[in-house]
Amino acid sequence: MTPSAEQARVEARQILSERRFKETKLPRPLHAPLEWLGDRLRTIGHWLDVVLPGGGNVVWLVLATLALLFALVVARRLAGMRGPGMGRQPRRGGEPAIEPDELERRADDAERAGELERALRLRFRAGVLRLAARRVLDDPASATTGLLVRRLRSEPFARAALSFDEVVYGRRAPTADDARLAREGWEAVLGR
Protein backbone atom coordinates (compact mmCIF):
# COMPACT_ATOMS: atom_id res chain seq x y z
CA MET A 1 0.00 0.00 0.00
CA THR A 2 1.41 3.39 -0.95
CA PRO A 3 1.07 6.38 1.29
CA SER A 4 -0.88 9.30 -0.02
CA ALA A 5 0.83 12.48 -1.10
CA GLU A 6 -0.45 14.25 2.00
CA GLN A 7 1.02 11.58 4.30
CA ALA A 8 4.37 11.84 2.49
CA ARG A 9 4.39 15.64 2.99
CA VAL A 10 3.62 15.23 6.70
CA GLU A 11 6.46 12.71 7.10
CA ALA A 12 8.84 14.97 5.18
CA ARG A 13 7.98 17.98 7.37
CA GLN A 14 8.44 15.85 10.48
CA ILE A 15 11.86 14.63 9.31
CA LEU A 16 12.99 18.10 8.26
CA SER A 17 11.94 19.53 11.62
CA GLU A 18 14.49 17.33 13.40
CA ARG A 19 17.48 19.01 15.03
CA ARG A 20 19.99 17.66 12.52
CA PHE A 21 18.34 19.74 9.78
CA LYS A 22 18.37 22.99 11.79
CA GLU A 23 21.14 25.57 11.55
CA THR A 24 23.35 25.63 14.62
CA LYS A 25 23.63 29.02 16.26
CA LEU A 26 27.26 29.71 17.06
CA PRO A 27 28.53 32.52 19.26
CA ARG A 28 29.73 35.49 17.22
CA PRO A 29 31.55 37.78 19.66
CA LEU A 30 33.10 39.92 16.93
CA HIS A 31 29.94 40.34 14.87
CA ALA A 32 28.90 43.72 16.31
CA PRO A 33 32.38 45.35 16.23
CA LEU A 34 32.98 44.11 12.69
CA GLU A 35 29.57 45.35 11.57
CA TRP A 36 30.37 48.76 13.08
CA LEU A 37 33.79 48.85 11.36
CA GLY A 38 32.23 47.75 8.07
CA ASP A 39 29.67 50.55 8.27
CA ARG A 40 32.43 53.14 8.80
CA LEU A 41 34.59 51.75 6.00
CA ARG A 42 31.58 51.57 3.70
CA THR A 43 30.95 55.28 4.35
CA ILE A 44 34.58 56.08 3.50
CA GLY A 45 34.37 53.86 0.41
CA HIS A 46 31.24 55.62 -0.85
CA TRP A 47 32.91 58.99 -0.27
CA LEU A 48 36.01 57.86 -2.24
CA ASP A 49 33.75 56.62 -5.05
CA VAL A 50 32.35 60.13 -5.37
CA VAL A 51 35.64 62.02 -4.94
CA LEU A 52 38.02 59.90 -7.04
CA PRO A 53 37.64 59.49 -10.77
CA GLY A 54 37.16 55.79 -11.48
CA GLY A 55 35.54 55.12 -8.10
CA GLY A 56 36.10 51.83 -6.32
CA ASN A 57 38.34 50.41 -9.03
CA VAL A 58 40.87 53.19 -8.48
CA VAL A 59 40.71 52.71 -4.70
CA TRP A 60 41.46 48.99 -5.03
CA LEU A 61 44.24 49.68 -7.52
CA VAL A 62 45.86 52.20 -5.16
CA LEU A 63 45.54 49.83 -2.17
CA ALA A 64 47.01 46.92 -4.17
CA THR A 65 49.90 49.11 -5.30
CA LEU A 66 50.63 50.22 -1.73
CA ALA A 67 50.55 46.60 -0.52
CA LEU A 68 52.93 45.57 -3.31
CA LEU A 69 55.34 48.42 -2.50
CA PHE A 70 55.28 47.50 1.18
CA ALA A 71 56.04 43.85 0.34
CA LEU A 72 58.88 44.95 -1.95
CA VAL A 73 60.46 47.13 0.77
CA VAL A 74 60.25 44.30 3.32
CA ALA A 75 61.71 41.77 0.86
CA ARG A 76 64.62 44.05 -0.02
CA ARG A 77 65.44 44.64 3.64
CA LEU A 78 65.36 40.91 4.36
CA ALA A 79 67.50 40.17 1.31
CA GLY A 80 70.01 42.79 2.40
CA MET A 81 70.33 41.19 5.82
CA ARG A 82 70.84 37.66 4.45
CA GLY A 83 72.89 38.34 1.32
CA PRO A 84 76.21 36.78 0.29
CA GLY A 85 78.25 39.48 2.06
CA MET A 86 76.84 38.32 5.36
CA GLY A 87 80.26 37.33 6.68
CA ARG A 88 81.43 40.93 6.63
CA GLN A 89 78.44 42.27 8.54
CA PRO A 90 78.51 42.71 12.28
CA ARG A 91 77.46 39.71 14.28
CA ARG A 92 74.80 39.74 16.98
CA GLY A 93 75.79 42.05 19.79
CA GLY A 94 77.37 44.57 17.42
CA GLU A 95 80.87 43.10 17.40
CA PRO A 96 82.41 43.04 13.92
CA ALA A 97 82.61 39.74 12.05
CA ILE A 98 86.04 38.18 11.65
CA GLU A 99 87.53 38.33 8.16
CA PRO A 100 88.59 35.09 6.42
CA ASP A 101 92.28 36.10 6.49
CA GLU A 102 92.11 36.50 10.27
CA LEU A 103 90.43 33.10 10.59
CA GLU A 104 93.17 31.53 8.43
CA ARG A 105 95.84 33.13 10.62
CA ARG A 106 94.13 31.76 13.73
CA ALA A 107 93.87 28.33 12.08
CA ASP A 108 97.62 28.36 11.35
CA ASP A 109 98.33 29.39 14.97
CA ALA A 110 96.06 26.63 16.31
CA GLU A 111 97.71 24.07 14.05
CA ARG A 112 101.18 25.08 15.26
CA ALA A 113 99.93 24.85 18.87
CA GLY A 114 98.65 21.32 18.23
CA GLU A 115 94.95 22.31 18.46
CA LEU A 116 94.09 20.50 15.24
CA GLU A 117 90.30 20.32 15.65
CA ARG A 118 90.17 24.06 16.29
CA ALA A 119 92.36 24.63 13.23
CA LEU A 120 89.97 22.54 11.09
CA ARG A 121 86.94 24.47 12.32
CA LEU A 122 88.58 27.87 11.75
CA ARG A 123 89.77 26.92 8.26
CA PHE A 124 86.27 25.68 7.39
CA ARG A 125 84.71 28.98 8.53
CA ALA A 126 87.27 30.98 6.54
CA GLY A 127 86.61 28.93 3.41
CA VAL A 128 82.84 29.29 3.72
CA LEU A 129 83.17 33.06 4.12
CA ARG A 130 85.39 33.24 1.04
CA LEU A 131 82.84 31.24 -0.97
CA ALA A 132 80.10 33.59 0.21
CA ALA A 133 82.16 36.63 -0.81
CA ARG A 134 82.49 35.08 -4.29
CA ARG A 135 78.71 34.53 -4.32
CA VAL A 136 79.06 30.75 -4.52
CA LEU A 137 76.91 30.48 -1.37
CA ASP A 138 73.71 32.35 -0.65
CA ASP A 139 73.60 31.67 3.08
CA PRO A 140 76.99 30.91 4.62
CA ALA A 141 75.43 30.39 8.05
CA SER A 142 73.66 27.23 6.87
CA ALA A 143 76.45 25.76 4.70
CA THR A 144 77.17 22.11 5.44
CA THR A 145 79.99 19.93 4.16
CA GLY A 146 77.47 17.84 2.21
CA LEU A 147 76.10 20.92 0.45
CA LEU A 148 79.61 22.15 -0.33
CA VAL A 149 80.76 18.78 -1.69
CA ARG A 150 77.73 18.65 -4.01
CA ARG A 151 78.11 22.25 -5.14
CA LEU A 152 81.90 22.41 -5.54
CA ARG A 153 82.46 18.95 -7.11
CA SER A 154 86.11 18.79 -6.10
CA GLU A 155 87.73 15.51 -5.10
CA PRO A 156 90.38 17.15 -2.86
CA PHE A 157 87.63 19.12 -1.12
CA ALA A 158 85.46 15.99 -0.77
CA ARG A 159 88.35 14.27 1.06
CA ALA A 160 88.83 17.33 3.29
CA ALA A 161 85.08 17.48 4.02
CA LEU A 162 84.98 13.79 4.98
CA SER A 163 87.96 14.28 7.28
CA PHE A 164 86.32 17.38 8.81
CA ASP A 165 83.06 15.53 9.49
CA GLU A 166 84.86 12.56 11.05
CA VAL A 167 86.80 14.82 13.41
CA VAL A 168 84.18 17.43 14.27
CA TYR A 169 81.00 15.34 14.28
CA GLY A 170 82.37 11.81 14.61
CA ARG A 171 84.67 12.89 17.46
CA ARG A 172 87.67 11.13 15.89
CA ALA A 173 91.00 12.47 17.15
CA PRO A 174 92.45 14.84 14.53
CA THR A 175 95.83 14.22 12.94
CA ALA A 176 98.31 16.37 11.03
CA ASP A 177 97.04 14.61 7.90
CA ASP A 178 93.54 16.04 8.56
CA ALA A 179 95.01 19.56 8.72
CA ARG A 180 96.91 18.96 5.46
CA LEU A 181 93.75 17.63 3.75
CA ALA A 182 91.83 20.72 4.88
CA ARG A 183 94.47 23.09 3.49
CA GLU A 184 94.66 21.21 0.17
CA GLY A 185 90.88 20.92 -0.13
CA TRP A 186 90.24 24.61 0.39
CA GLU A 187 93.15 25.59 -1.88
CA ALA A 188 91.66 23.38 -4.62
CA VAL A 189 88.27 25.11 -4.54
CA LEU A 190 89.46 28.63 -3.81
CA GLY A 191 92.38 28.52 -6.25
CA ARG A 192 94.86 30.24 -3.96
Q: What order do the SSEs take from the amino end to the carboxyl end, as H and E?
A: HHHHHHHH
Strand content: under 5%
Unreliable residue stretches: 83-90
What's the overall geometry?
elongated
Mean of pLDDT? 85
> How many helical elements?
8
- Global Rg: 34 Å
Q: What oligomeric state do the depicted chains represent? A: single chain
Number of strands: 0
Q: How far do the termini sit from each other?
A: 100 Å
* Fraction of helical residues: 55-70%
Secondary-structure-based class equals mainly alpha
Main beta sheet strand tally, sense and closure: none
Question: Top keywords for this entry?
Answer:
192 residues, mainly alpha, 8 helices
Summarize the structure.
With 192 residues, the chain is mostly helical. The chain has eight helices and no strands.
Question: How would you portray this structure in words?
Answer:
The chain has a domain at 100-190. The protein has helices at residues 5-16, 31-51, 56-81, 100-112, 116-133, 145-152, 155-168, 176-190. The chain is built from eight helices and no strands. The termini are far apart. The chain is mostly helical.
List the helices and strands and how they pair.
Elements: H1 5-16, H2 31-51, H3 56-81, H4 100-112, H5 116-133, H6 145-152, H7 155-168, H8 176-190
Helix pairs in contact: 4-5, 5-8, 6-7, 7-8
